[in-house]
Amino acid sequence: MAEIQMFNVGQRWISNTEPNLGLGAILSVSGRTVDILFPATEEQRTYALDSAPLTRLTFEVGDVVRSAEGWDMAITDVIDTEGVIRYQGIREDTKEDASLHETGLDHHIRLNQPEKRLFSGQIDEPKWFDLRFDSLHYQHQHATSPTLGLAGARIDLIPHQLHIAAEVGKRYAPRVLLADEVGLGKTIEAALIIHQQIQTGRAQRVLIVVPDSLVHQWLVEMLRRVNLNFAVFDESRCEAIAEEQSNATGEEGEDSVKTASVNVFDSEQLVLCSLSFLTEHDEYRRQAIEAQWDLLIVDEAHHLQWQPQLPSPQYQAIEALAHATKGVLLLTATPDQLGHQSHFARLRLLDPARFHDYDEFLEEERHYGELADAVAPLLDYRIPDDEELTKLKAVAGEWLTAQTDFSQREAREALIDTLIDQHGTGRLLFRNRRAAIAGFPERHVHAHPQTLPESYQTLLHDDEIDTYIRLHPEQQPEVFDQWLSVDPRVNWLCDFVTEVRPEKILVICASAVTAQQLAEHIRVKTGIRQTVFHEGMSLVERDKAAHYFAQAEDGAQVLICSEIGSEGRNFQFANQLVLFDLPLIPDLLEQRIGRLDRIGQRRDIQIHVPYFEHTAQHVLFDWYHRGLGAFEKTCPTGTRVFEETQGALVEALHTPQNTAQLNALIENTHELNQMYKAQLDAGRDKLLEMNAAGSGKIEPLLDEIASQDASGDLPRFMNRLFDAFGVQQDEIERNCYVLMPTESMVSAIPGLDPEGMEVTYRRDTAASMEHLHFLSWDHPLVHNTMDAVITDVMGKASVAFIKDPELPKGAYYLQTIFVLSAQAPKQLQLGRYLPETPISVCIDAKGKPFEAEMGHLFNVNKSTANKLIGALKPAIMQNLDVAERSAHQRANQIQHDALERMHRLLGDEVNRLVALSAHNPSIREEEIHFLREQIRQLDGSMQTAQLQLDAVRLVVNNP
Predict the structure, then answer these.
(1) Parallel, antiparallel, or unpaired: how do β-strands 505-508 and 812-821 relate?
(2) More reliable by pLDDT, 784 or 685
């Protein structure tokens, strides 16, 4: 900046002291003062001519400038006429010749080039330079981390869940069946996969389809677990969207929904809806199928009934969606619930080309059963004997060589890994069994026999009474108005909830009406806080009830829910379960118990069953307890046994006094159950289970996440960012903070609640206090705050003092940040190999690289800073060239290493899949094609990466 300012009307200047005013225009110049208008803020200032804190804004040939009308121009010539500049150039939009007087420049122009900001005096405090570099550094570190999309989830670090998520989430368009047993966390696995696919750019548009009763739970779980905000689509929402669209296109009339030219599902990227909504509305189902999703998730997939000639409407709807969607996740705890053919039907949804014939599927399964048998000694950590080795050679083929040394653990594990890859459904099906997962509590059943009241005796002696009423006599119309006062189970329940208070108690019964009546009776008789949960409530009402029950303080002690409460909802913070009645289907009993018996449950489950002695209720209790052992252990064979014994069981329910008949039934049930359990255990696909558990593979990832959790880098960095932005962060209790925007905030941060938000950086605190936001490197607020630094001009130019007595006064350094960046479509995952990469170069006064620590930096007032910049400008320009040459050398090496790593990782994966495709039909050709195309396109993008100067800081010694 020149020592003597020459002002002329029409020139454009920037205020050094108030840069947020934008670009100012000289209005008038008098003998001693200059008047300047800042159109962007409609403010005017008057300055003394000899001390005006203003910097003239000029551009050079090659710069791109914006006009006040909004178009951009690349400058080809600069014409100065009596101190006022006119720029000639080519418009970026039309490519036509254009002329732009400096009075026509955009009023909101903010200099982005660091060197221009430095030389024009547009400098910031030194801390912003450091925050720019650290933000770029941490973004780069996060983009290349193997924990991306996994570490930030609000979950406990459970190995099998993280293994499945990491394995499936990294695939192109994954199509898998998540079939872990009840309580092992399929919803969490799906959430992690969705989050990782979105974070890495593999997916952008996601559709989740669930039963009606689970819509709101999935909505809350996606937001709470992985900070994904899904839009719930139902009839009213779609009608509102369609109406807006028809108004916009000028369509009218009752058929506007059907004729609207815009698909309602295109209005959101992340959509959640119920299966019944799709099956009951043909037009919206058609639009959902045509909406081009990247990922489809279907929960409770065992409800999709299928027969070769008669698939259900629900199955047909999901089949059409799965056919039109690249990636598909099906979730079910009971893949064989409707028979083995139904399991084939789920796999058919994932790969219809392969699973087109049921008999072929059975033959293929037989072959993979032989494979699992042959590999058994390796799974048992034994060296195969001669007979076992013969079997192993028969199935392992070329994978087993004469040089394979089974005495070496590494050799055995390498062969197991190869055979798992070769396994037929190993890439499609992930199933973990509770028996193989540590950490589950014990289950204890407590029988509470009651005497049958007289008012029920008359009813139950009627031979015409059906089975349901025998099990639920309180629902008989004759006693509906009085049953609460005569049923001894009610008094027992009131006494029980009082006796165990303040323990949380989950009560499940079959009927919504029964649940409501019991809740009101408990409220009146005991005064204990209670709430209900049933199908007659809206989704929001159900969620409020569940939240009220979950509150540790001032929450409900008792939650009474109908059968709907046995699907999907998780209440493992409680361990007292009252089964006010018993369901006839074993799977429903397991689902009821599974609301409490889940990973994360830290206490033994206490199951309380009140029943009437010598009645159908007593028979059913004995059948479950003595026949199946279903209360104290999971019973995967229960439904199969029920199907075989159903006739005898119903007869026993109608004749409970026939003890001989009951004992015979229980003995037969026990024998069948043991037989089927033995068959199930013998038929277990241990190779498939090993693949799903991830033993020996997931430990490095777990260690990396644990290391991140233990590190203090994130809280320290965010504390600096919040402090710089003007966000107040106060600790309200140990490891819990409240973030509160202040009036002095530098700029708004997307995602920061203007009313304040409570956060924690600790996983264990987030798990126990769900109202807190769990801040991690994955959290949107963390990304948004770093983006607010990087995308703004803050820190692009600054000046600082150091106080080093060992250096001469006036010694200086030029610190620079360069950024190496490339461009590619999101689905290519460029960020995994070459995200925006910061390169820091420091040059001393002699033009030599300097890498020593600077020590503490001090602010410099703008007047002094401008004088230093003016005096050192020639040297700064020279040193910028030196820094750029040094940065280019490092950038070339970074590009070389990134390209080599990309080719190695993706090339190895292509070779692996090509080799496996000869043995495993689950390897899709489109997956191999995508990887090859990914390599080709990334190769071009990474080779053309550009290096740009991002920030510059002048550091001067002033001891």
Answers:
(1) unpaired
(2) 784
One-letter amino acid for residue 50 of the chain:
D
Whole-angstrom Cα Rg for the chain: 35
586 and 635 in contact (C-beta within 8 Å)? yes
Measured from the Cβ of residue 77, the count of other Cβ atoms closer than 10 Å reads 10
Cis ω for the linkage preceding 583 (within 30 of 0): no
Q: Quick one: angle between helices 159-169 and 186-199, nearest 10?
A: 40
- Report the sign of the C-alpha dihedral through residues 465, 469, 470, 476, in that order: negative
- DSSP class of residue 57 equals -
Q: Give the integer Cα–Cα distance in Å for 315 and 302.
A: 10
pTM: predicted TM-score of the whole model, two decimal places: 0.75
List the Cα angle 188/193/197 in 5-degree steps: 150
Distance (Å, whole) CA 613 – CA 447: 11
Write the DSSP assignment of 60-87 as a string of letters: -TT-EEEBTTS-EEEEEEEEEETTEEEE
Name the 3-class secondary structure at 434: helix
Would you list the DSSP string of 726-791?
A: TEEEEEEETTEEEEEE-TT-SS--TT--TT-EEEES-HHHHHH-TTSEE--TT-HHHHHHHHHHHT
d(CA 958, CA 949): 27
Which neighbouring-strand residues pair with 957? Answer: 802
Of 648, 605, 628, 630, the residue nearest 506 (C-alpha) = 605
Query: What are the angstrom distances between the C-alpha of 228 and each of 221, 274, 756, 860?
Result: 9, 18, 20, 44
Task: Look at residues 941, 904, 902 and name the one whose alpha carbon lies nearest to residue 821.
Answer: 941
CB proximity list for 467: less than 8 A, separation 6 or greater: 584, 616, 650, 653, 654
Token pair 């045509």 is at which residue? Answer: 290
What is the distance between the alpha carbons of residues 501 and 524, in angstroms, rounded to a whole number? 16
Kindly state the greatest CA–CA separation across the chain.
119
Quote the distance between the C-alpha of residue 928 and its chain's center: 26
Sheet (strand 33-38) strand order = 43-48, 33-38, 23-29, 12-15, 54-56
> pLDDT band at residue 862, thresholds of 50, 70 and 90?
confident
Can you list the domains of the chain with their CATH numbers?
Answer: 12-110 (2.30.30.930), 435-683 (3.40.50.300), 698-792 (3.30.360.80), 795-959 (no CATH)
Name every residue whose Cβ is closer than 8 Å to that of residue 789 and which is 6 or more positions away in sequence. 128, 131, 132, 135, 721, 795
Write down the mean pLDDT value for the chain.
Answer: 86
Q: Quick one: how far is CA 375 from the chain centroid?
A: 36
**E strand intervals along 587-735:** 605-612, 727-733
pLDDT (tens digit, 9 = 90+) per residue, 847-858? 998 887 778 899
Q: Which residues contact 647 (CB under 8 A, 6 or more apart)?
A: none
pLDDT digits (tens, 9 = 90+) for 815-840: 999 999 988 888 888 988 999 999 99
∠ at Cα 878 (876, 879), nearest 5°?
A: 65
Q: CB of 293 within 8 A of CB of 263?
A: no
Which residue is associated with the tokens 């689509």? 233
